[in-house]
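Reviewers asked in the last cycle whether our approach scales beyond single polypeptides. To address this, we selected a multi-component target totalling 570 residues and predicted its structure end to end. The input consisted of the following lines:
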Amino acid sequence: MKVGLWKIAHARSGDKADRADIGLFAYDAPTYAVLKREVTRERLAVHFADICKGPVELYPLDNLLALKIVLNAALQGGAARSLRMDNLGKSVAAQLLRMEIEAPADLPRLARA
Amino acid sequence: MKSVRIGAGLGFYGDSWRPVRASVESGNVQYIASDHLAELTLAILQKDRQKDPSAGYTRDVVPMLLELWPLAAERGVKFVMNAGGLNPHGARDAVARAFKEKGYTAKIAVVTGDSISERIDELQAGGETLAHLDTAADIATVRDRIVFANAYLGAAPIAEALAQGADIVITGRVADAALSLGPIMHELGWRWDDWEKLAQGLTVGHLLECSGQATGGNFGSAGEWAKVQNFVGLGYPIAEVSEDGTAVVTKAPGTGGRVTFDTLRQQLLYEVHNPHAYYSPDVVLDMGTLNFDDRGNDSVRITGATGAKRPDTLKVVAGYHDGWMGTGMIGFSWPDAYLKCETAVNIIKGLMEERGWKPDEINAEYIGYNSLLGANADPAQRDNLNECFIRMTIRTTDKRMADGFGRLFPWLGLSGPPYVGGFKGVQGAKELLGLWPTLVRREAIEPRVAIDVEAIA
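The resulting structure, written as structure tokens, was:
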């Protein structure tokens, strides 16, 4: 079934020069396995096509049940050069949580809800 | 086993030091590590210094220390702070004046040597290319527009200042985590090539450098953020690091917020790129082997960091003038709030065309609809908004155009779409700054690093 990431994961984003970076965290191990399979560089590139003008980097961290995502050339040259309301990219993580992925209905977090 | 307890100070220039009081009074800390410099803060400080050569440091350092120093001195708590910005001696002088007036005494150390804005020619003559770290572009393209350039120093000068008996260490640009790593190295006496232990220390410093972000602040989530208790009394993180490298992160008893596996892993990965090679001046950290053991009661035990040899280069970030931004904003109520904003955008574009204005870039954001979510906003909500604000920004090299842009908006009040509100005056041109990250060999920087300790009595 289609599941929004906001239901099964949490995320924070920040900036460094022209890069926006996101930490995406599964609430539990079964969900992490699904995130690792579904949240691919290709999908991220499409999801952030509007702001990310460089390559997407993706690093899975099994010890933290987390994916580290780096969006290169995503902040119009950096926070002090950006014209955007969110010049620091703090809401980029919220944009990510809007992504919908294919997930089994019996994930612990979904069963609890 | 010997250990050291460090409390987080500020996480940026403008942050509150209210929560630091609890760490000092009941958190049993020996040091406060206070990070006043975000990536852009030096740009703000440069503007201050242009107006007044004695400025250029973060002004919060004086009221913060005036309030906290009596409590800290009584308990032997020391401060390490990068509040010196572009003028660490200026910060020291301002604190010294304020302390003398109150009769406070302290030994204050100043660390300098990070600024290279006056040394660019000399460094290039010595073989440093200063090419852009990501694009490899030649620094000549921005050379005459540079407003600041500073290297990120490591923990060694901070540890040295503490060894010389400083109670308060004021630095310019240092790696944020070095503010914690300095006292850790001083207290625990680890070797500067013990990469595993340095990696543990770097992890702790990184967890502490954004104050409330480790204790439940900005907990990025749907719903879970609301389970954080007592935002008003939110405590800042405290870390206890043992001689063997083991660390425990917690907060002062009775404070709000939470320290859990979730709040700490969000902060661990914050503003990190490759987590297997997190560079600092003192060690390169691999986060892939870290173990966070959440023991409940706001206590998480951290072990397992892997470290690799420190890099031969230091990171430098320069800021350079890169044009001007003009801004205009106005709000519209239901009905047709979005459509009226869109109409306003077209009117403004028409007015610009009439004047022959061709900015390099025009940006229109619909506040209440997509100004934060961008292309990931839900279009189904667009045509049924209660209200919507339009914010337009332009980028131009022409300061007069950027200044004039905001003045196009008031006319909409009587001669545009109906039900306007929220027009609160015209904003002038804002200077835009580009950032220039680059690398410089340590040998070109470190011999110039100086520590100046003075007793204020």
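Chain A is about 30% helix and 30% strand. We regard this as preliminary and will revisit it once experimental data from Aim 1 are available.
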